[in-house]
Predict the structure.
Amino acid sequence: MHREDTHSAPRLLSSAEFESRLNQATCRPTEEAQDRLVLIGFGGQDDLVSDHGTEATRAALTELGARITSVIPAGHCAAHLFGDRFAVLVNEAEEVEQVTEQLLNALRQPASFHEQALTLRPRFGIAKAQDATDAQDLVRRGTAALQRAESIGGRRPTLYQTQAMPLHATDPRLAEQLHDALEGGQIKPWFQPIHRTTDGSLVGVEALARWEHPERGIIPPAVFLPLARRAGVLSRLDALVRCQAMHWLARVHREHHEAADLTVSVNIADADLVDIGLPEQVLAELEHYGLSTSSLCLELSERAETAKSPEVQGRIREMERAGLRWHLDDFGTGQSNIQRLKGLPFKAVKLDRSMIKGLGRDSHTAQLLKPIVTLARVLDLEVIAEGVERGEQLRTLRALGCDMAQGHHLSPPRPAAAVEAMLSSLVSKPQRALEAAPAADQP
């Protein structure tokens, strides 16, 4: 069975460890999928600080984390996501009611600080792992359920329901703080390595935005990217992350000769494509950081509607003629058709994690992927798989002829310094990337 069993003292997992567990849960076959994500909130950290002060709130959150780990049964895991937000991954659906009841009893008792009693109002939002495509989608669903629970004021856990709970529901105060985050350097790129499936060699990294909030900790992109899109600052956020990624890559090229050919992949938002100045802007950024055009890969989502415009398609071709590489991202989630692949100068397709979810556990997924890989070969496109969470997925992808892969099985997204510290071993001993998953991914 896939269930974890541990006799070690319970602890709160790091964000990377917990994200890895969530991704594993969403990849389980339907017949085995019993995992539930339980999100826990206390009305918002800002309210706690307003009521009790910063020092008392920090002490209370530390105490809450200890209470959570003290009551969850063996085999389940928990994490402090950010601010007043905690999460528990329950491995068995029938245990959710019991676990939430234990959590409620433990968390509704006042916390103490210098003999002061801090009244707490825990709320619970629950989401089914098998309904989500990945960790971010699962967190979005849990967040929506938690928002619903907080809005109705009840203490009973609220299960996510598609029609009743919009996925963009979140703390409105974060939207107000997002502009300050962009100005204050809180939005930073983390990097996820991309490896060749044949020999494990490191060929590039993907830059993924993270919000390092000074009070709430690491806020996941599932929470703040929808805010950025609605606030009309997604293009600005993408440009900020792109420039930071280029700055980092330029330094890596200078200081790590073994990684001189390393590339960085960045996302180009749908809204960016309508900007007539995009080609000039990206080329100017590359020149400013002393990078060649071959160092940068631009990822365009298959769902991008503006890419259907002849004007935008002309802009994409202009950038390709200048030496920039385009990858078709999220392949399999939108209109996966030959015309889209033939009509634009893509160099690679990135298989969405939903496309590879069943690899190694059912024969149908591999059979569906075979013609996609064959089509890519005919069109002279490389194939990259994202969301690789298990060794059996990686082995099947290699057998199918998939060129590259990324995912928590190989490495979760990490801060720039952590990736840089790993570069020498990743480049000098590439086979290790294929032989062993990171520690956070081990059962």
Q: What stands out?
A: Residues 172-441 form a domain with the TIM Barrel fold (CATH 3.20.20.450). The chain has 16 helices and 18 strands. The two ends are 11 Å apart (CA to CA).
